[in-house]
Specification:
It contains 14 helices and 21 strands. The N terminus is likely disordered. The longest helix is centred in the last third of the chain and has 18 residues. It has a domain of about 210 residues: Dipeptide-binding Protein, domain 3 (Roll). Helix 13 packs antiparallel against helix 14. It is of the alpha+beta class.
């Protein structure tokens, strides 16, 4: 018997992160009274200049923009279930080691090249041999066979339950074979997505609906204009004045936004605030130092003071409503706020007077505030933290290249799959594990968790991984799991926050004003 979509695989990401819309005023926002025609371009106030629009190089949070230009083989819905994308259907073998994809016909790339099985093979083969951000996710793909133009087969080295999630992310975003050798995809993309890129200059991006899109009737708006406001207050001012229709906001701005009569869309998202420490630094290679750094953080205080309702304190990367969340882990001794025990561990590790290190962070206000709080709390146990704010492209590049001692940011925990988070942060060769931290037993537990699409089978080994990593002193120090907020004007309809950060703007309409 063979297992097919969608009967089983909707369970792969079975947790549903609630998406709530909150209307925030009985009055109309400034500038209301549009024609209600749904024909205007969407204007967005974003928080950071993208490091890249090339899916092979882009940062995880840039999927919102990259996904406008590139379709994935598999489409992931906001509730975590899978639906057809460039692949109309798929079938796994009984042992989960062969994945057959039936591809959509009649699809072309922006550059006119045909989408077919050869294009899929060319992309996956290139990713396997190249240095992409997702090469590690494809480590279990032994070979890719072209069956015919619309059928491709992936032969896997081990059971591949997470593979659908992988193909729903950047690894499944297919680039025109004619463009695979190019380095200019940030300015001249070559995907099959619903939009084309008009321009990416400085802090401004412009996208226009593509007339050649295979499903152009599903795309509601003519285009999207993005302006990046690094200053969080400036972003809200742009919203209030009508310069933008939608803006990314921080939890501490909710009261101001509500008072302005703007509307809010929010969702608990599968990401968390945390610090990566590079275990190539001698001090961070010592588990007792990492344990001490965990114990020195007062997570409830940080979360309440910086985010209010917007971040749930936790010593693990997964949300409480994620199947990968290990119940009771936040009650373990290693997860408590205990600065005295932290000082004792530092002394046992040979650092009774502490040591100094650099903490990289972004230039946005919330990022620098977080860095300052960490500086103060770790300072209480004798650590000297030298905070280094960096503009986004430099910040993202340094993290990707492993050129940091420590770095604080937000990190996705369930995209493309919870198991890929473990590969990326906790196993040798992972993109955000620059010095190959390796705790014995984790790889074997991960293989066990990846052997079945049934989350009840996946849970026990994943929960043990989380517990073992915590007790060892994690190389990624979690602080809190986030809620993401968009503020928008009343002429915007159909806006949602994707809990898993997939691009989900094609259903949005904007009324002319």
């Amino acid at each position: 018997m063979r297992t097919s979509f969608p009967r089983v695989f909707g369970a792969l990401l079975a947790f549903v992160l609630a998406v709530s819309l909150a209307a925030c005023s009985s009055g109309s926002p400034e500038g209301s009274g549009g024609a209600g025609d749904g024909q205007a371009r969407l204007t967005i106030g974003a928080a950071a200049i993208p490091a890249s629009l090339d899916p092979r190089k882009s940062a995880p949070y840039e999927a919102l923009w990259v996904g406008l230009l590139y379709d994935s083989l598999v489409d992931r819905k906001p509730d975590g279930t899978f639906a057809p994308g460039l692949a109309e259907s798929w079938t796994f073998s009984d042992d989960m080691r062969v994945l057959d994809l039936t591809l959509r016909s009649g699809v072309t790339f922006h550059d006119g090249a045909p989408f077919n099985a050869e294009a899929v093979k060319a992309n996956l083969d290139a990713a396997k041999t190249g240095a992409t951000n997702f090469t590690n996710y494809l480590a279990n793909v032994d070979s890719v066979d072209v069956v015919d133009d619309t059928h491709v087969r992936l032969n896997l080295s081990e059971a591949g339950a997470p593979t659908l999630g992988t193909l729903a992310g950047e690894a499944g975003m297919i680039i025109s074979p004619q463009a695979l050798s190019r380095d200019d995809l940030s300015t001249s993309p070559a995907g099959t997505g619903p939009f084309t890129l008009d321009s990416f200059v400085g802090s401004n991006l412009k996208f226009t609906k593509w007339d050649g899109y295979w499903n152009k009737a599903a795309v509601k708006m003519p285009g999207i204009d993005v302006t990046v406001y690094i200053d969080e207050s400036a972003r809200v001012r742009a919203l209030r004045s009508g310069q933008v229709d939608v803006g990314f906001i921080q939890p501490n701005q909710l009261e101001e936004v509500r008072a302005a009569g703007l509307e809010i869309t929010s969702a608990g998202t599968a990401d968390f605030w945390g610090v990566i420490v590079n275990t190539g630094k001698a001090e961070f290679a010592d588990p007792k130092v990492r344990q001490a750094m965990m114990l020195a953080l007062d997570r409830p205080s940080i979360s309440q003071n910086l985010f209010g309702e917007g971040c749930v304190p936790s010593a693990q990367p997964f949300r409480p409503d994620d199947w990968a969340y290990a119940p009771g882990i936040d009650d373990l001794p290693a997860a408590q706020y205990d600065p005295q025990r932290a000082k004792q561990l530092l002394a046992e590790a040979g650092y009774p007077n502490g040591f100094s290190f650099e903490l990289q962070t972004g230039t946005m206000q919330t990022w620098t505030q977080m860095a300052s709080v960490l500086q103060a709390q770790w300072g209480e146990i004798g650590l000297t933290v030298n905070v280094r704010p960096m503009e986004n492209v430099q910040f993202v590049t340094a993290r990707r290249d492993g050129e940091f001692e420590s770095t604080v940011s937000t990190y996705q925990s369930a995209r493309p799959d919870q198991s890929e988070f473990v590969k990326t942060f906790y196993l040798p060769g992972g993109l955000f594990n620059p010095s190959d931290y390796d705790l014995p037993g984790v790889a074997e537990l991960l293989a066990e968790s990846s052997s079945s699409p049934d989350v009840e089978v996946r849970k026990p080994p994943m929960h043990k991984i989380m517990t073992d990593i915590l007790n060892d002193g994690p190389p990624v120090i979690p602080i809190c799991t986030r809620t993401t907020f968009y503020a928008h004007r009343d002429n915007v309809h159909g806006l949602v926050v994707s809990p898993l950060f997939d691009s989900d703007l094609v259903d949005v309409t904007v009324d002319s004003r």
